Prior knowledge:
Layout: H1 28-48, H2 50-68, E1 70-71, E2 74-75, H3 76-91, E3 96-98, E4 119-124, E5 130-136, E6 141-148, H4 158-175, E7 181-192, H5 196-204, H6 212-224, E8 230-241, H7 244-249, H8 251-269, E9 278-279, H9 282-293, H10 298-306, E10 322-325, E11 330-332, E12 335-344, H11 356-359, E13 367-376, H12 379-400, H13 403-420, E14 426-436, H14 442-455, E15 459-462, H15 467-473, H16 489-494
Antiparallel strand pairs: 1-2, 3-10, 4-5, 5-6, 6-8, 6-9, 7-8, 7-13, 10-11, 11-12, 12-14, 12-15, 13-14
Helix pairs in contact: 1-2, 12-13
Amino acid sequence: MSTTTDAPRHRTYGNWIRQRSPGIYGLGTIGSIVLILTPAFAVIGLLVDAMVGLTIGLFGLLVLAFMAYKIKGRSLGELLIVRFAFWRTRAKKENLYHSGMLAEPNGAHQLPGLLARSELVATRDGFGQDAGIVVIPQTSHFTAVLRLDPEGASLVDREQIDQWVAGYGHWLAQLAHEPGFVAASVTVETAPDPGTRLATAVNSQRNQQAPELAGQVLDDIIATYPAGSAQVTAWATVTYQSTGQNRRRGREVMINHVAARLPGLADALRGTGAGAVRPMTAQEITDIVKIAYDPALGPMLEEVRAKGVPSQLTWDNAGPKSAVAGWDTYRHDSGATRVYSMDEAPRGTVLARVLEQLIQPHPQIPRKRVTLIYRPHTPGEAAKIVDRDVRTSRFVQNSRGSARDQVTIRAAEQAATEEAEGAGVTRFALLVAVTMESMADLEDADTIVDGLEGTARLELRPVYNGQAAAFAATLPTGVVLPEHVVIPPAVREAI
């Protein structure tokens, strides 16, 4: 008689599919149309004049070359357009920002770029707690921020972690049913801990009649314990858009609508390991944004908050004094930042802790923000998307027939089955903002990020000609980058 003990299996996650349009040889819908129509128009041109037909043929081949040749998933034509846009921006000096006493219109340190017209409204949620709502009028977006207190995964059973992940997935799936919902993001920011909170907590409990040795021990603790430690701040943003009747009723109705949804959203997050969840006040949002643009203010504002005194910063002065947006860098006041975006999700399946080392504080990176952005599809859109992904995967497999295409077909079919059983479909992206003290330090940041992306099984690349916008997307402001582009999403997916 023998017994066998099965080892406990770790739950894995994956089955994400990069959305693409069907096309011949990976050209996409528009490229396939050009490939089919170019010979036809060239023949018609030859019937009129030989030079006309030759010109049409060469032009079509040139367009196809720009669309077919890809560098890290991006076509040559797309890269040339981005580079030209950067040259044009730099030539017109639109990448420079200066504020202050001599700046228009009010001499304040206003936020730059996509946040220039934004407003911050102080209100209360459905339970009467103070909350801040960021309004971006150009897209009619209203964003609330939830302050998180993550419990961490140290000494936590695997079953508990699996329950947290399941609760997190359920929270994302339910967002698709929220009326007027646009996007959500979750950010984990790490920064040096100045030790102000520890000093305040110790001094508040100090007994003046205690022995001198005990007082010296407390002083040593206050002086040495914060050295090398990090302060971890986490928040989640939920962004709604005024549509239908709410658009006609006005801004106040949307603000009240978003504020009323916060208690339910916060309660659902508590089952995801997010800890104590509460709405972030307008003053807290302002402080976080200001420190991001001017990291040197961090210790001073932390000292003010530790005393229980509001910082008195306003949204009109939350921006930098000056900022310079480069090709792949962003210089702002006392910091230099490079924002990286996820170029490719992990291949295959991953464990629940795949992003752990990427999120954790790093001793050589003073300030880092890791932001996961989610845009859930509505149930009606989700059914159409998964069916389209199955058709596209089969079309690509028939045209190329590679082993990877077969894996993609299986993933698409599994996603369609899960969606039919009630699962949600969500678009997601990841941004990593690394802030150093000087531009020269950013070269070291590249080496560090290269190592961290390997542990997370991701492919990260710097955001080119969009550093300022990507920087704003990592802040608690609700900036949804796809909503601010000129080319419609349907056209971008067809390229």
